[in-house]
Specification:
By secondary structure, the chain is an alpha/beta fold. The chain has two domains: about 250 residues, Mur-like, catalytic domain (UDP-N-acetylmuramoyl-L-alanine:D-glutamate ligase), CATH 3.40.1190; about 120 residues, Alpha-Beta Complex (Protein-Tyrosine Phosphatase, Chain A). The chain has 15 helices and 14 strands. The chain has an eight-stranded mixed β-sheet, with helices on both faces. A six-stranded mixed β-sheet has the order 9-10-14-11-12-13.
Length: about 400
Amino acid sequence: MNYNITYSEMIDHLYALGKRGNDLGLERMERVASQFNNPEHGLRVIHIAGTNGKGSTVAMLAQVLQEAGYSVGTYTSPHLVDFRERIQINGKMISKDDFLRIFEQLKETDLTFFEFITMLAFLYFQEKKPDFVLLEVGCGGELDATNICIPEISVLTRISLDHQEFLGCFTLEDIAKTKSGIIKKASVFTCNEENILDMIKEKCKQQKVNLVATHDYHGDVSLKGEFQRENAGLASVVGKFLGVSDENIQKGIANTKWIGRIDWIEDNVLIDGAHNEAGIGALVDYLKTLEYDKLVVVFGVCENKDYKKFLELLPYDKLILSKAGLDRAVDPKEIQKEIDICEIVVNPKDALDRAKELVGEKDLILVTGSLYLIGDLLKQLAGREDRVVNEFV
């Protein structure tokens, strides 16, 4: 099929939508959805919100459901290497042709970047009809573009402070309130966050929603880090609610892969997209389980992140400051003003090469601070030059 633009031009158009800002709200989504006969209403949606662990929970639950023989659509953000990672069915990305075709249907709408991609995903899943759609919230919950759906199950992963500048929320209770906005009637809500459980219980009571208790999973978890047992517990509870056998739940959680999250790309090179204090803390807990002599950290971060706190937590011996290729990435020179012992190598791959020059056989290299930094590094290692989106989702 012939289109008026190429795939590359379409991606440029999507990036340009970032200029419309991050105006959270459902009015535009509801209006455009109604023009397309509400494609989100015909889907069996499992809606996942939270600060940390959304992507891991989606990955594990998708694998659990596929082990049970279901077809599973996933919508996640951001992407790391290929834009189409955001929209997949059974681990296979949306084709460029399908992306372009549905883009043409939506290109005259007034949707913002994330709203546009969300609506495109709804239309794609409506066409392909997977048995389930795992829908990851982009930011917050109540006013997030994904929240026009009517979920069969709502899931809340661990909550911590993040995206305050967009959400206007500055306490855990505030964050929990906006994220619990995904709770809908006739859905089941799973939650692993003890500190705000009473508030969640009250919200569920108001909405006449069952609250299903979760627990750490004690079986074989393929994803690294003790914190993944919480996310595996969520996937396990949802799987059981949907009637998946214990055997398939165990297989799914044991066979899950999730790129860029505590991910060993070489024997002594670990990458992790931790980008808030809770994520860095979980990463540090994992480092404590490892044996190594020196730790060389390649670090890059986006604006409005407490990078001084991140670096206080990280037990590095040597620090290399790098930068993802987007406008919101912090200039390493700004970080250097706060840190006495460090060096700057702006390009992520060059920074990794420099780290390799500094380590011995028993030393460890860690690349962290931003998913965008991880994405840029992986693209460069794969020989790609794709730009990352100047957006937070």
